[in-house]
């Protein structure tokens, strides 16, 4: 038989009186407040909010009460349980936060521990400098030309107006290959790339050619049998020395900074006429020849105010003829600089041999771009 | 070329406001580049005076030397007027002689400070000087004994000794041979300052006559002009005047004897080489001809030379007596007994001079000038000047005979539009300026719009219109060239190959490798060390005719010697963990044809162009890797991971992946790798090279650490396979089904082969096969290994059923069993 309990005994329900329920609630709330950690709170939850807790038992007994008592007691017990659950949730949050904080604290590490878990790689500064120079000219619309290191004598010399009996041939001490009658040399400059370019392209030609060259120089702090040059060549209608100066000034600024210009001095190269040496205004002292404090000579230019940078000139018409370019229609200019040398004074490299010894500490200092 | 400024002033009336520094700068701007500015005499300071030796007491010393205790009258120069006591070690003087005395307070070259000091038991107050101590030459045989006219005791002796001068050293370019003389430098100095120039070669000379020394020229092309003069009764003991010796010394040559010094002095003055013979040693007619091959001549430097048919020789009845224009012969050399002199001033063909100099490896002051070309119109003037100086300072009589054979070649005529200098230089240069400037350098100029120009005879370098453009431009001033960017057309940027090479470098740097650049020179021993087989193609290397080192005469065919040497250097310097790479060309010669020397007056034909290129060796780009030590360093996180055979293989795969190329790794066998740890890298159906561990014997031989790992691949070939435009991938988004398979196979079976078989057997539903474990040990037994693969399956259009994946897996295992005897574990 279901239905309300007919044998309502008011004595029996005394424990569910207001006082008792409030006492249960307060006891529970005090226990919650006293719970020091999540583990203790778990116990408190079971002791004061579980099915077998006083309030849980009280809740079960509500059903046994006569209908007239049920409402009041139900509300009282319900409110008490609600308050307890709310307090539990709040305490849970607080304790969780504290527990996380504690965890983070214990996980603290010494982030200054040395790392270098992987050794650092690097590209060679000559490679990155060559690329930087190439990029400067590519940005102007020029292209990058290349040629072989072991080269035909005719392209390295004859085509460049350096005939077999030209005294200037001794200016560039050449590595010859055997047998001599094959006329094959290690290129002494990047200029044969000029000849190759003229012979394989039609003007207008705007190219830059960085590359490796060889001369029979004994190896010391300032000489090497192998070094690197960058050559520029322009063949077009109406080209003048002014265009040469403009290109080199731009090159100088792109490499050494705003306001760095060049100056020409008359010189001699068989493949150019007129020919000039190019000097760069010292990018450290800006031409003053003095150090920062003005009390000693500038270390970079050794007090000259200018730095010798390379050679240049108007392409000799004899070269144009040998390379199949019409000298009546076209003129051109060419220039050449040492990449190694440029790096030496741009970065203060004291000894040329640093480039070729391959000490990883050297290249690493320059990273992967320059 | 060193030019004393006092000597320049003799021909140019330099303006007073032009300092030496200023003059050097102006000449540099004109094309005579300042090499160094010397101020001889500047390092001698303080009282330097004439002294008269009053007394001189020799005092033998215990050390065996004898010193002289002298009193010297230095007038009032010492402030007391009393004789100065000086200890002197030299003995070439006597009381009464005038000597050079530096008093206390003076400083000699080298910062040598003179003070009163106790020595050999005396208080020596000053020093009696030798020429060397004053920086006046090498003569240290004794102190300077001055002639009576040098001055009175106490007079300053600086001026008398010509101690002070300024010397500008120029770097002379090959086209400015005329500037290898005071005549040429002074002419430029006049041009630089606007001052008047007096030509030392402009002399009234006696006309040639038939009475001179008999000379004949057989080869007028090789020797177009020969002038001979004689001096008789010359005093061979006469000394060179101080001014001449000093100038020769300041110009960088060594005074030798009056007769030799005069010929050198006039060469420096006018730029024309001169040769003097002991006329008494000449036998009969002097003749110029080409040498007979095999003919012998002992030159002045006491070297017996075997002559070539191309050499020009001066001969007399005795045979060759000089290598014309380059160096005289020993048999007719002037000596300290020569009293009769024959002076030769001859013009020579520059090309012949250059060849002879090169052939006999002879470099002389005369040869240097003759091979660049000297003024052929001045031999008579030069010879006359020599005779004048010989007679003036050495006595004797000028012979009445004047021999001149041949005529000076004429200068070429160059035609140039007056507008050309402006058109080429980009400067505004009026035709009038062009004419004015060309005239200023000595040209004869005719015309107004089109100029007909005859260059002066001393400018044998000028033959083309552009040569004249440079002359005009340098006088107008290179500093006036404007700066204008040329209007380049739109460029195509870097080529794919250029971009990819950068990508390879960046990939390797990202993988922890450091790039190195090594010399390509090796010796055959390098190939022996790598244990290359006798028939290994890498032994066929291009040989240099003139290597820097006899031990390394070959152009390398492999980058390994270079990178391994570099690796060893790093280890030797204490860097124990090294990973390096080099990307460079190697030289692979093929049985070649000769590269033709083509004409230069036209473009090569296509056939000629092909021949030029065919003659060159193959020069592919290679990539080499070398590693040692820890690949991943040890640290607080744990132990390091030592470099293994697998690292270079992995890196090659990484590089290939960066290029979008799939490489296949197969078991390989090549020197110098460990026979069991060598992988061969394939791509595009061809072998690209090898990677793995270096052979232990090779490690030992090269002095690199054991277990060093290396790779070398043909990077050119790999770059060719690079994917230019990567196609977008298609992939399924349905769930993946994973299956692991463990297979037991014989240890010799390559895992990559098993993986390929699984891929094939599993069919199209198989997405990937990845080896995740290798086990050898008791559980699989000797000679066996267990390979664990993770297989992933997926269909493009549906979720696979267990049955489908199971079937594909079974098929894969079955094929592996069939192919490799694999047993599933």
TrEMBL record, chain A:
Source organism (scientific name): Nocardioides marmorisolisilvae
The protein's Enzyme Commission number: 6.1.1.20
InterPro entries, alphabetized: aa-tRNA-synth_II (IPR006195), aa-tRNA-synth_II/BPL/LPL (IPR045864), Phe-tRNA-synth_IIc_asu (IPR004529), Phe-tRNA_ligase_II_N (IPR004188), Phe_tRNA_ligase_alpha1_bac (IPR022911), Phenylalanyl-tRNA_Synthase (IPR002319), tRNA-bd_arm (IPR010978)
Gene it is expressed from: pheS
PANTHER family with a match to the protein in the record: PHENYLALANINE--TRNA LIGASE, MITOCHONDRIAL, PHENYLALANYL-TRNA SYNTHETASE
GO terms for biological process, alphabetical: phenylalanyl-tRNA aminoacylation
Keyword hit for Ligase: yes
Family membership: Belongs to the class-II aminoacyl-tRNA synthetase family. Phe-tRNA synthetase alpha subunit type 1 subfamily.
Enzyme class name: ligase
Any one GO CC term of the record: cytoplasm
The protein's required cofactors: Mg(2+)
Protein's UniProt keywords contain Metal-binding: yes
SUPFAM superfamilies: Class II aaRS and biotin synthetases, tRNA-binding arm
Keywords per UniProt: Aminoacyl-tRNA synthetase, ATP-binding, Cytoplasm, Ligase, Magnesium, Metal-binding, Nucleotide-binding, Protein biosynthesis
Assembly and interaction partners: Tetramer of two alpha and two beta subunits.
Binding note for cofactor: Binds 2 magnesium ions per tetramer.
Name the record gives this protein: Phenylalanine--tRNA ligase alpha subunit
GO MF, one example: magnesium ion binding
Record-annotated Aminoacyl-transfer RNA synthetases class-II family profile domain positions: 135-344
Residues spanning the signal sequence: none
Subcellular location(s) per record: Cytoplasm
NCBIfam families linked to this entry: pheS
Domain of life: Bacteria
Residue numbers binding Mg(2+): 273
Chemical reaction(s) catalysed: tRNA(Phe) + L-phenylalanine + ATP = L-phenylalanyl-tRNA(Phe) + AMP + diphosphate + H(+)
Main location: cytoplasm
From TrEMBL, chain B:
GO biological process: phenylalanyl-tRNA aminoacylation
Protein name (record): Phenylalanine--tRNA ligase beta subunit
Subcellular location: Cytoplasm
Family the entry assigns: Belongs to the phenylalanyl-tRNA synthetase beta subunit family. Type 1 subfamily.
UniProt binding sites for Mg(2+): 461, 467, 470-471
GO molecular function, one term: tRNA binding
Note on cofactor: Binds 2 magnesium ions per tetramer.
Reactions it catalyzes: tRNA(Phe) + L-phenylalanine + ATP = L-phenylalanyl-tRNA(Phe) + AMP + diphosphate + H(+)
Record InterPro entries: aa-tRNA-synth_II/BPL/LPL, B3/B4_tRNA-bd, DNA-bd_dom_put_sf, Fdx_antiC-bd, Fdx_antiC-bd_sf, NA-bd_OB-fold, Phe-tRNA-ligase_IIc_bsu, Phe-tRNA-ligase_IIc_bsu_bact
Domain TRNA-binding: 42-158
Keyword Transferase: no
Residue stretches making up the FDX-ACB domain: 732-825
Record key words, sorted: Aminoacyl-tRNA synthetase, ATP-binding, Cytoplasm, Ligase, Magnesium, Metal-binding, Nucleotide-binding, Protein biosynthesis, RNA-binding, tRNA-binding
């Amino acid at each position: 038989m279901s239905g309300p309990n007919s044998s309502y005994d008011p004595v029996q329900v005394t424990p569910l009186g207001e006082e008792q329920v409030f006492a249960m609630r307060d006891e529970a709330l005090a226990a919650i407040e006293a719970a020091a950690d999540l583990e203790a709170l778990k116990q408190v939850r079971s002791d004061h909010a579980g099915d077998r807790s006083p309030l849980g038992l009280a809740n079960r007994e509500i059903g046994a009460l006569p209908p007239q008592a049920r409402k009041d007691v139900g509300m009282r017990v319900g409110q008490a349980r609600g308050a307890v659950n709310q307090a539990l949730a709040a305490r849970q949050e607080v304790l969780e936060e504290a527990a996380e904080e504690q965890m983070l604290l214990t996980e603290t590490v010494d982030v200054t521990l040395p790392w270098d878990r992987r050794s650092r790689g690097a590209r060679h500064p000559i490679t990155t400098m060559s690329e930087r120079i190439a990029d400067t000219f590519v940005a102007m619309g020029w292209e990058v030309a290349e040629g072989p290191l072991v080269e035909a004598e005719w392209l390295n010399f004859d085509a460049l107006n350096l005939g077999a009996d030209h005294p200037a041939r001794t200016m560039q001490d050449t590595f010859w290959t055997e047998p001599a009658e094959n006329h094959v040399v290690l290129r002494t400059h990047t200029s044969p790339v000029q000849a190759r370019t003229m012979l394989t392209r039609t003007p207008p030609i705007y190219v830059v050619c960085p590359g490796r060259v060889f001369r029979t120089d004994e190896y010391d702090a300032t000489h090497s049998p192998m070094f690197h040059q960058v050559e520029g060549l322009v063949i077009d209608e109406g080209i003048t020395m002014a265009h040469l100066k403009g290109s080199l000034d731009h090159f100088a600024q792109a490499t050494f900074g705003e306001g760095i210009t060049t100056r020409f001095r008359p010189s001699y190269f068989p493949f150019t006429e007129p020919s000039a040496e190019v000097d760069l205004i010292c990018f450290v002292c800006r031409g003053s020849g003095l150090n920062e404090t003005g009390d000693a000579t500038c270390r970079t230019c050794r007090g000259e105010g200018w730095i010798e940078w390379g050679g240049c000139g108007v392409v000799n018409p004899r070269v144009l003829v040998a390379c199949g370019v019409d000298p009546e229609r076209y003129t051109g200019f060419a220039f050449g600089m040492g990449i190694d040398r440029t790096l030496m004074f741009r970065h203060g490299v004291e000894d040329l041999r640093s480039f070729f010894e391959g000490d990883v500490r050297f290249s690493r200092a320059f990273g992967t771009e320059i | 070329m060193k030019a004393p400024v006092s000597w320049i002033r003799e021909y140019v009336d330099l303006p007073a406001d032009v300092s030496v520094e200023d003059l050097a700068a102006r000449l540099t701007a004109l094309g005579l580049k300042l090499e160094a500015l010397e101020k001889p005499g500047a390092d001698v300071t303080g009282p330097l005076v004439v002294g008269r030796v009053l007394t001189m007491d020799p005092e033998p010393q215990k050390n065996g030397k004898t010193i002289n205790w002298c009193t010297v009258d230095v007038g009032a120069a010492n402030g007391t007027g009393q004789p100065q006591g000086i200890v002197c070690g030299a003995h070439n003087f006597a009381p009464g002689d005038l000597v050079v005395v530096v008093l206390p307070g003076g400083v000699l070259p080298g910062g040598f400070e003179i003070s009163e000091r106790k020595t050999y038991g005396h208080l020596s107050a000053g020093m009696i000087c030798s020429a060397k101590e004053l920086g006046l030459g090498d003569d240290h045989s004794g102190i300077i004994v001055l002639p009576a006219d040098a001055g009175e005791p106490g007079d300053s002796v600086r001026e008398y000794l010509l101690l002070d001068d300024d010397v500008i050293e120029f770097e002379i370019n090959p086209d400015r041979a005329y500037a290898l003389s005071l005549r040429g430098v002074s002419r430029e100095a006049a041009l630089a300052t606007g001052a008047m120039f007096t030509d030392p070669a402009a002399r009234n000379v006696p006309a040639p006559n038939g009475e001179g020394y008999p000379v004949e020229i057989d080869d007028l092309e090789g020797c177009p002009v020969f002038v001979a003069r004689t001096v008789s009764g010359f005093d061979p003991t006469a000394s060179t005047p101080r001014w001449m010796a000093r100038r020769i010394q300041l110009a960088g040559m060594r005074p030798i004897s009056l007769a030799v010094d005069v010929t050198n002095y006039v060469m420096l003055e006018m730029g024309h080489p001169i040769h003097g013979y002991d006329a008494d040693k000449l036998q009969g007619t002097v003749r110029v001809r080409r040498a007979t091959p095999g003919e012998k001549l002992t030159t002045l430097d006491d070297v017996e030379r075997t002559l070539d048919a191309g050499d020009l020789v001066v001969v007399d009845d005795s045979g060759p007596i000089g290598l014309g224009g380059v160096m005289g012969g020993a048999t007719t050399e002037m000596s300290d007994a020569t009293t009769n002199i024959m002076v030769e001033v001859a013009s020579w063909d520059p090309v012949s001079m250059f060849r002879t100099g090169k052939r006999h490896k002879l470099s002389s002051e005369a040869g240097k000038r003759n091979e660049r070309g000297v003024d052929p119109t001045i031999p008579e003037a030069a010879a006359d000047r020599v005779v004048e100086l010989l007679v003036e300072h050495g006595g004797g009589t000028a012979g009445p005979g004047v021999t001149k054979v041949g005529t000076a070649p004429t200068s070429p005529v160059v035609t140039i539009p007056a507008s050309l200098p402006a058109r080429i230089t980009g400067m505004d240069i009026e035709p009038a300026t062009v004419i004015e400037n060309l005239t200023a350098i000595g040209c004869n100029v005719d015309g107004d719009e089109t100029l007909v120009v005859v260059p002066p005879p001393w400018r044998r370098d000028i033959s083309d219109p552009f040569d004249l453009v440079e002359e005009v431009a340098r006088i107008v001033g290179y500093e006036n060239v404007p700066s204008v960017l040329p209007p380049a057309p739109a460029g195509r940027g870097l080529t794919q190959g250029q971009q990819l090479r950068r990508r390879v470098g960046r990939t390797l740097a990202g993988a922890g490798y450091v790039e190195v650049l090594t010399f390509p020179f090796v010796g055959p021993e390098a190939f022996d060390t790598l244990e290359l087989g006798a028939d290994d193609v890498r032994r066929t290397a291009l040989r240099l005719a003139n290597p820097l080192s006899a031990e390394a005469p070959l152009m390398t065919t492999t980058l390994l010697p270079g990178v391994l040497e570099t690796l060893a250097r790093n280890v030797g310097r204490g860097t124990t963990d090294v990973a390096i790479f080099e990307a460079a060309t190697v030289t692979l010669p093929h049985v070649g044809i000769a590269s033709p020397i083509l004409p230069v007056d036209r473009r090569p034909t296509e056939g000629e162009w092909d021949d030029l290129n065919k003659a060159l060796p193959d020069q592919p780009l290679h990539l080499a890797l070398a590693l040692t030590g820890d690949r991943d360093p040890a640290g607080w996180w744990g132990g390091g991971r030592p470099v293994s055979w697998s690292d270079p293989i992995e890196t090659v795969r990484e590089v290939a992946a960066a290029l979008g190329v799939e490489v296949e790794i197969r078991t390989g066998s090549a020197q110098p790798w460990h026979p069991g740890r060598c992988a061969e890298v394939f791509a595009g159906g061809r072998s690209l090279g090898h990677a793995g561990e270096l052979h232990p014997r090779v490690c030992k031989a090269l002095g690199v650490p054991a277990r060093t790992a290396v790779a070398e691949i043909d990077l050119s070939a790999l770059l060719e396979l690079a994917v230019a435009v990567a196609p977008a991938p298609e992939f399924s988004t349905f769930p993946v089904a994973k299956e692991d398979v463990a297979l037991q196979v014989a240890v010799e079976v390559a895992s990559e082969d098993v993986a390929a078989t699984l891929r094939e057997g599993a069919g199209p539903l198989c997405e990937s096969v990845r080896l995740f474990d290798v086990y050898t040990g008791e559980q699989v037994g000797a000679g066996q290994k267990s390979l664990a693969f993770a297989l992933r399956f997926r269909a493009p259009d549906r979720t696979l059923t267990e049955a489908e994946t199971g079937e594909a897996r079974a098929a894969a295992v079955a094929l592996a069993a069939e192919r490799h005897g694999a047993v599933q574990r």
